[in-house]
Amino acid sequence: MARKKILVTGGAGFIGGNFVQYMVNKYPQYDIYNLDLLTYAGDLTKHRNFEQKKNYHFIKVDIADRGKIMSVFKKEKFDYITHFAAESHVDRSITDPEIFVRTNVLGTQVLLDAAKQINIEKFVHVSTDEVYGELDFDPTTFFTEETPLQPNSPYSASKAASDLLVRAYHETYGLPVNITRCSNNYGPFHFPEKLIPLTISRVLNEEMVPVYGDGKNIRDWLHVIDHCAAIDLVLHKGIHGEVYNVGGHNERTNLEVVKTIINTLGKSEELIKFVADRLGHDKRYAIDPSKLENLGWKPTYSFETGIAQTINWYLDNKWWWEQIISGEYKEYFDKQYSLKAKVN
Ligand code: NAD
Ligand code: DAU
């Protein structure tokens, strides 16, 4: 079998990083190229055991730098592209939207142009359920692939814009694309600005855990490895031009999630501090994954088994997250959450 070259953008981040490791292990016959700018959210220490692997390669480039991206594509003829690189945190998009447009919209367009110039077999654009906006609390309603796009935050608006560009490059130029729209991920190497790793790291340090508003907003949680398996399946079996929703029916309120972590770690619920709500805070996300299930996907983790595995991972891998929370992250946290305390 011919060796395939797979470009993974954002492979130093949370989901892209897990995907790189999943693919390097699963497909020794593929060459995996991790292309990443190494922003605050990207780090290579997570791949310290992979650097020696023959089928792993790293390229440091900004996806929005057209000249550099074109040079990379001139040198390497990729067969597949899985595009994860993005600014991904909703709160940061509320305070600084511009970088979200540059990276998520312009960066995606540059990659599409580069992909158009070579004969790729597939471009998988990793998107999010947030492009659909929010659902109300009626538990019988779900996002399907036909739900209209109604993004509410600058982050989700930039992702929706990139989805539309990907669709347009398929319709106009016949680029073989898929778009995946996944619900909230959690698991190893999740950057501690997001709810689950922020809660685990703060509870372990006996620090207060900020819960926005009344804590009743609902997210649909999926273990990152189940997301990686979904993308692998879509990469190889997805029908060109199709969108696939990814989610495992694990709806929880934020308060339930935080309490589960506190109770698993045997700490006091008094650590919970209700703070000012997120602006434009989406009420509920919930995915109908039947289209992807029909393609052959099913998740391996329930929320209970996944959160237990994740908490254990953070207990066993303090070396990874302690280096993060002691750096520039501390400044971010103080600024972000002192603002919230003031609004309260
Ligand atoms: P992340 O923030 O952990 O990682 C993003 C990565 O992209 C980092 O390594 C960063 O260095 C890199 N990056 C940022 N700007 C770049 C640029 N200009 N050029 C090259 N690299 C750049 O994000 P994540 O949570 O792993 O999300 C990955 C993708 O999955 C995103 O596209 C996101 O929209 C999507 N997604 C995330 C979730 C979730 O729950 N985290 C759910 C569904 C979809
Ligand atoms: O649904 C998929 C999306 O999930 C991805 O597209 C995003 O990249 C990813 O960041 C995530 O977005 P959320 O905004 O849902 O995730 P976050 O972890 O930031 O917040 C989860 C919920 O917890 C949300 O309702 C806000 C709340 N929250 C978050 C933080 C950081 C708190 O109550 N306190 C907090 O400190």
Describe the protein:
With 344 residues, the protein is an alpha/beta fold. Helix content is 43%, strand content 17%. The protein is built from 12 helices and 12 strands. The chain has helices spanning 14-26, 66-75, 90-95, 98-116, 154-173, 195-204, 224-237, 254-264, 290-295, 303-316, 318-325, 328-343, and strands at residues 4-9, 30-36, 56-60, 80-83, 122-128, 177-182, 184-186, 209-212, 218-223, 243-246, 251-253, 272-275. The strands form 3 sheets. The chain has a 7-stranded parallel β-sheet, with helices on both faces. Strands 7-9-11 form a 3-stranded mixed β-sheet. Strands 8-12 form a two-stranded parallel ribbon. Helix 1 packs across helix 7 (224-237) and helix 2 (66-75) runs parallel beside helix 4. The structure holds nicotinamide-adenine-dinucleotide and 2'deoxy-thymidine-5'-diphospho-alpha-D-glucose (DAU). The site of 2'deoxy-thymidine-5'-diphospho-alpha-D-glucose (DAU) has 19 residues, from helix 6 and strand 8.
